[in-house]
Write the structure tokens for this entry.
Amino acid sequence: MELSHRRRRRRRRRAREDRRETERERERERVGELILGARDTHKTQRFSCIEKQGELMAHSHARDFMFCDLCGTVLSMRTTKYVQCPLCKFKRSMKEVAERETSYMVTAEDIRRELGITLINDQEVQLSKVKKKCEKCDNEEAEYWTMQMRSADEGQTTFYRCTKCSHKFSEN
């Protein structure tokens, strides 16, 4: 009797794990389709992909089970029965949250793009010129810029680049 009970429990556990894996595969496929669809729509029709982005965001929001569906606030675990939004009091059953995990990877490029920051190449910046003799070629003109290299109570370091040979040198 005990042995058959264990077997049934193992079968149920395997079936549950198989269902979870199938759900994960479907989710990966759906996200891939949404991303490819948004990219292809944008390429071929050259218009804003607001509808596709909305679908992708809705899918992502549904996947982010630790956030409130109504206002997006992180849900708080105050009891063992449910998680609740501290702002709008939305509740979600603890069964929906238990044993689930979400992982994210955010790159520096993602952060720069979100904040609207672009990297500036030295060639794009217009530097001021000053009369400063180059140590390498004796040219009399150099471009300069300053940077705070040490603690704030000390002066800045001035960097020079010769306009003729591009030799770089500095002065504290």
Notes: The radius of gyration is 29 Å.
